[in-house]
Specification:
This protein is an alpha/beta fold. The protein contains 9 helices and 5 strands, in the order βαβαααβαβαααβα. Helix 1 crosses helix 9 (171-183), helix 2 (32-41) packs across helix 4 and helix 6 (118-127) crosses helix 7. The chain is globular, with a radius of gyration of 16 Å. The model has no long low-confidence stretch (mean pLDDT 93).
Length: 184
C-alpha cells in the first residue's frame, strides 16, 4: 500500500511524475484540479458548490476542497493507496489532511519534494506557451509557492516522511529515482 504526497514548484513535473508513478503502482493519481473538474462535470452537490465560486471568479474555499478530498479518499480505488498532487497547498491544509487520514485509518507514507531551481521552472513554463504563462505571472506564482507551500517541506520533514528528489533531470531519470524510492 502506497500513499504519497507530491510537492514541488509549478512546472517541477510533479503532475507528470505523479501520473506515471500512479500508473506503475496501479493506484489513483489524485489531483485537486481533476477532482474539481470531475465533481463539476458529474454535477455532484460539492461540484455545484465549487462551480458557483468559480463562476464568480473566486477560489474554491479550503473546506470545500477538503470535503472533495475526503470523498475521493473514501472511494474504493483509493483503498490500496494513492498519490496526492496539488494538495495540501499550505500547512493548515496539511494539518487537516493529517486529521482526515487518522479518521480514515490511513497514513501518508511519504511526502516527495521534486526539487527544481526557480530559473529552470521559469524556462519550462514559458516553453509551454500558454497565454497566462507570462514571466511576470510565473514569477508571482513562484513567490506564492515559496510563501505558502514551501513551509510544507518542514512540516513533513518534522514528521520524518519527507524525501527530496532532484527534478532537474530528464523525466525518465526522475521516474526511475521515484520508483526506486517507493520500492526501495
Amino acid at each position: 500500500m502506497t500513499r504519497l504526497i507530491f510537492l514541488g514548484l509549478p512546472g517541477s513535473g510533479k503532475g507528470t511524475q505523479a501520473a506515471i508513478l500512479a500508473g506503475l503502482l496501479n493506484i489513483p493519481h489524485i489531483s485537486t484540479g481533476d477532482i474539481l473538474r470531475n465533481a463539476i462535470a458529474q454535477v455532484t452537490p460539492l461540484g455545484q458548490k465549487a462551480q458557483s465560486y468559480m463562476d464568480r471568479g473566486e477560489l474554491v474555499p479550503d473546506e470545500l476542497i477538503l470535503d472533495l478530498i475526503r470523498d475521493r479518499l473514501n472511494q474504493p480505488d483509493a483503498q490500496n493507496g494513492w498519490i496526492l498532487d496539488g494538495f495540501p497547498r499550505n500547512v493548515s491544509q496539511a494539518a487537516f489532511l493529517e486529521q482526515l487520514l487518522q479518521e480514515l485509518n490511513q497514513a501518508c507514507d511519504r511526502a516527495i519534494n521534486l526539487e527544481v531551481p526557480d530559473e529552470v521552472v521559469v524556462v519550462r513554463l514559458l516553453a509551454r506557451k500558454r497565454p497566462d504563462d507570462t514571466e511576470q505571472t510565473i514569477r508571482r506564482r513562484l513567490e506564492v509557492y515559496h510563501e505558502e507551500t514551501a513551509p510544507l517541506i518542514d512540516f513533513y520533514r518534522e514528521r520524518s516522511v519527507l524525501s527530496s528528489i532532484n527534478g532537474d533531470r530528464p523525466p525518465e531519470e526522475v521516474t526511475e529515482s521515484l520508483h526506486h524510492l517507493v520500492n526501495g
